[in-house]
Write a structure and sequence with these properties.
Layout: H1 2-9, H2 18-32, H3 35-44, H4 50-72, E1 78-80, H5 84-93, H6 100-119, H7 122-129, H8 132-153, E2 157-159, E3 165-167, H9 173-190, H10 196-210, H11 243-270, H12 283-300, E4 305-307, H13 311-316, H14 322-334, H15 339-343, H16 347-360, H17 373-388, H18 392-409, H19 418-432
Antiparallel strand pairs: 1-4, 2-3
Helix pairs in contact: 2-14, 3-4, 3-5, 4-12, 4-14, 5-6, 6-11, 6-12, 8-16, 8-17, 8-18, 9-10, 9-16, 10-16, 17-18, 18-19
């Protein structure tokens, strides 16, 4: 076994050990296992079977992380991405009125395109062409959007009478469960406890039981995984040539690219895995892992799979190779046997996780150039339009259009790539024709 691990992951070369990598892998899983509870809840809002989504979430995370482990040999774990699942559910399905089968088709096509773009190096070229401040603003905007969904789901923020938003009943059982969980997560984060979000969800779930919010499973805590049949390969091909499909697919592409590239570079930097120029050697292999994960995830029945920033927790524990990813993948597979536990967790208990993850995604705001108005205004519109328009896509649309116009009208045309101007034209057409 020792020889197999050394041959597969080059532990000595990376100055690490199997014990360190195993601990790091478990830590990574603990920090991102909340997705097993949150993803079924979010996608379940579209009418998808929550149990089937749970199984799809665990298996897609297992497959993608396994590819990362053996093909890329990096300590990164993958799963259906937060923000991307919100766009899937609340923008494409509930907002635009499409079926969840339509949204799954867009995700599948995105995955296929990602595989092609990764091997032709086009993916990296596209990412480089998008303004840096817009990329950072997208992360921040998604963070606000996710936090808003959490607050709304717990009844802390509600639709007002005569005003767009109002404070809900913070003494309701759901609100109490959410606020309790948020405090627990906050304290654990301050204390630097690994798995703070997961522990917060579990504590909220326990409190929810006493407040009548949590309903325990009648069949026990161990069971065979829920069937994938209700969502497996449920694609809708009759609208693949529509403008809506193109716009939604492009949005999935952009959001996933920004999220994945930023996570890979950020976590790799903390792990000292980047070269002197800040580039990640073998980035193509790492990008391939999330492309494969997204493709297979759509087939299984879940939203876009991406690299998780929580992988930084495992890196902080010393994880430096794919063995860390392999351990995390194995735990995702084991979690299939514990589906009743995760499916019993109420939305009020996962709301604190959404709020906390929203906070995590705010950090790029520190790098946005607010002194240059041609950079600051587009970034601000990208951020603010996501929660206010209840759409990640609209945030990107307003940001790109503002960026193109400001650069064009201030005589700084060359500061934006031709791709930005092309996107701006497409997005203007989207707004004009309401697609």
């Amino acid at each position: 076994m020792e020889n197999f691990l050394e041959k597969s992951f080059h532990l000595k070369e990376h100055k690490t050990s199997a014990k360190t990598e195993i601990i790091a892998g478990f830590t990574t899983f603990m920090t991102m296992a909340y997705i097993l509870a949150v993803n079924p809840g979010i996608l379940g809002e579209t009418g998808m079977d929550s149990g089937a989504v749970f199984t799809a979430t665990a298996i897609s995370a297992f497959i993608a992380t396994l590819v990362m482990a053996f093909f890329a040999n990096y300590p990164f774990a993958l799963a259906p991405g937060m923000g991307l699942n919100a766009f899937f559910a609340f923008s494409v399905v509930l907002g635009m009125g499409h079926t969840w089968q339509f949204a799954l088709t867009a995700v599948f096509l995105e995955g296929i395109i990602f595989i092609i773009l990764t091997f032709t190096n086009v993916r990296e070229a596209i990412v480089r062409s998008i303004p840096k401040n817009i990329k950072q603003a997208i992360s921040v905007g998604i963070g606000l959007f996710i936090a808003f969904i959490g607050l709304s789901g717990a009844g802390i923020v509600v639709q007002g009478q005569g005003i767009p938003l109002d404070l809900g009943d913070v003494t309701s059982p759901s609100a109490i469960v959410c606020l309790f969980g948020l405090i627990i997560i906050g304290v654990l984060l301050v204390k630097k406890v690994r798995g703070a979000i997961l522990i917060g969800i579990l504590c909220s779930t326990i409190l929810g039981y006493f407040l009548g919010v949590t309903k325990l499973p009648e069949s026990g805590f161990l069971s065979t995984p829920p069937s994938l049949a209700p969502i497996f390969m449920k694609f809708e091909w009759n609208n693949i040539l529509s403008l809506d499909m193109l716009i939604i697919m492009i949005t999935f592409l952009f959001v996933d690219m920004f999220d994945t590239i930023g996570t890979l570079v950020g976590v790799a930097t903390k792990a000292n895995l980047v070269d002197e120029e800040g580039n990640l050697p073998g980035a193509k292999k790492a990008l391939f892992a999330d492309a494969v994960g997204t493709t297979f995830g759509a087939i299984l029945g879940t939203s876009t799979v991406t690299t998780y920033v929580e992988s930084a927790a495992g890196v902080a524990e010393g994880g430096r190779t794919g063995l860390t990813a392999l351990v995390a993948a194995i735990f995702f597979l084991i979690s299939l046997l514990l589906s009743p536990i995760f499916l019993a967790i109420p939305s009020a208990a996962t709301a604190p996780a959404l709020i906390a993850v929203g906070l995590f995604m705010m950090s790029p705001i520190k790098s946005i150039d607010f002194d240059d108005w041609t950079e600051a205004l587009p970034a601000f519109l990208t951020i603010i339009m996501m929660p206010l328009a209840y759409s990640i896509a609209q945030g990107i649309v307003f940001g790109i259009i503002a960026y193109a116009f400001l650069k064009l009208l201030t005589g700084r045309v060359k500061e934006a790539s031709p791709i930005v101007y092309i996107l701006a034209v497409l997005f203007i057409l989207k707004l004009v024709y309401h697609v």
